[in-house]
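Help needed: design a sequence for this.
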């Protein structure tokens, strides 16, 4: 079997006006969909974040892998490595590197292809399942009232039963609690993460305390200010949340700062911003900067790299959770196959999927039940892509005018003069 063709389709998916440390989500989240076609006509799919630079890198890689046997992942990665340029994740909450995403897109699509060619689910190609369902956490966001673009996202009844979660956003603890209740009752989530770094720290601490009061001690809570707090701020907020947070995600920037916060608090620290590559791991272990790493196959470079990370976490006694950006069902299916093959105890994984629910490009979108998604046992990722939907989302891409994620610019549209600060409070 050979890779005979590769199609890369940029898509734009409606996204609500979610706030974070870097500003505001645009009305559309950008993703790249890759389809590898084998010489015997089998398609393998992958999905990654969709910036212009990543698209250019993926197009270069695609040319170099035509004609290779998709089983030869080492040879495929060697070809990608010949092209790869050093790149930087940047200071934003999301990861701006192109080449880790390219490796992930190609590897996931190859695994989907190989699974289909052999009649086995990807999880079997990764060593077999250690769990049959993968639990996820509710992912709460403060929202910007009135933003959200022309498609009138707030009016689309795409996730019936939890419109409250999509209603007015404000610094309103009751609103955050209502969002959590709606999301948990619709999807059955049993843990909750609040995206912070938006309002002054005491306000976000108050939101967490309101969630604790509403949900009780049995529902684990997490807060993620995306690294824009100072060490003293993070320690003082952390002291108010001791015994309340399951983990404290990237309260500050950089391993040395994370280590200082970790030493001062009895709450485990987690990261998807300060330890994000294999090169970062020695520093993390030496300094003790975090107890939990949020893996993400999109930016650790694929399934095998994520399983390598999982092994290192087991050796060094680090916990493992899973990070997410706005995504569609191909990514969700890949996350589920990977989590099912990961032999670590896993914290409930992150997913933005509820914010994209109803806009998916799968013929049969994956379903959440009691907060978890069942592992699909069909060949490959177990999914079928709806080509008409794919074409529609590509059409959104062509008309929406976005080619890069830039939450700062979106924020400036509603608050002129607003600027992203790497450390704000
Ligand atoms: O979607 O606004 C967002 C998040 O802040 C995202 O960009 C982060 O990468 O979810 C992420 C996180 O856990 O830091
Ligand atoms: Mg995070």
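Sure. Designed sequence:
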């Amino acid at each position: 079997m050979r890779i005979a063709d590769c199609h890369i389709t940029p898509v734009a998916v409606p996204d609500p006006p979610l706030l974070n440390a870097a500003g505001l989500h645009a009305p559309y989240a950008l993703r790249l969909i890759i389809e590898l076609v084998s010489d015997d006509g089998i398609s393998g799919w992958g999905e990654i974040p969709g910036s212009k630079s990543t698209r250019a890198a993926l197009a270069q890689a695609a040319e170099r892998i035509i004609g290779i046997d998709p089983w030869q992942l080492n040879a495929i990665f060697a070809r990608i490595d010949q092209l790869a340029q050093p790149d930087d994740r940047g200071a934003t909450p999301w990861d701006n590197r192109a080449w880790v995403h390219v490796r992930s897109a190609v590897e996931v699509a190859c695994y989907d292809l190989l699974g289909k060619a052999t009649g086995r689910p990807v999880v079997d190609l990764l060593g077999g399942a250690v769990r049959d369902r993968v639990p996820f956490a509710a992912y709460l966001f403060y929202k910007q009232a009135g933003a959200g673009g022309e498609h009138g996202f707030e009016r689309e009844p795409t996730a019936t039963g939890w419109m409250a979660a999509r209603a007015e956003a404000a610094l309103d603890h009751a609103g955050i609690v209502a969002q959590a209740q709606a999301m948990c009752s619709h999807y059955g989530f049993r843990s909750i993460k609040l995206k912070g770094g938006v309002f002054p720290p005491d306000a976000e601490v108050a939101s967490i305390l309101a969630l604790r009061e509403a949900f009780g001690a049995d529902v684990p809570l997490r807060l993620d200010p995306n690294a824009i707090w100072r060490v003293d701020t993070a320690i003082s907020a952390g002291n108010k949340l001791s015994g309340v947070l399951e983990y404290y995600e990237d309260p500050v920037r950089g391993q040395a700062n994370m280590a200082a916060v970790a030493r001062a608090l009895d709450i485990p620290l987690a990261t998807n911003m300060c330890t994000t590559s294999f090169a970062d791991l020695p520093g993390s272990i030496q300094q003790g900067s975090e107890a939990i790493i949020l893996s993400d196959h999109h930016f650790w470079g694929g399934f095998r790299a994520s399983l390598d990370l999982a092994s290192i976490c087991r050796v060094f006694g680090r916990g493992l959770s899973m990070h997410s950006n706005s995504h569609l069902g191909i990514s969700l299916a890949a996350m589920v196959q990977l989590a099912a093959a990961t032999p670590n105890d896993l914290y409930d994984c992150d997913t933005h999927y509820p914010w994209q629910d109803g806009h998916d490009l799968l013929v049969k979108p994956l379903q959440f039940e009691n907060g978890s998604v069942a592992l699909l046992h069909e060949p490959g990722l177990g999914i079928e892509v709806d080509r008409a939907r794919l074409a529609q989302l590509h059409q959104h891409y062509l008309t929406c005018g976005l080619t890069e994620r830039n939450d700062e610019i979106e924020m400036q549209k509603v608050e002129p003069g607003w600027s992203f600060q790497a450390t704000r409070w």
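The chain has two domains: 3-120+387-399, 133-374.
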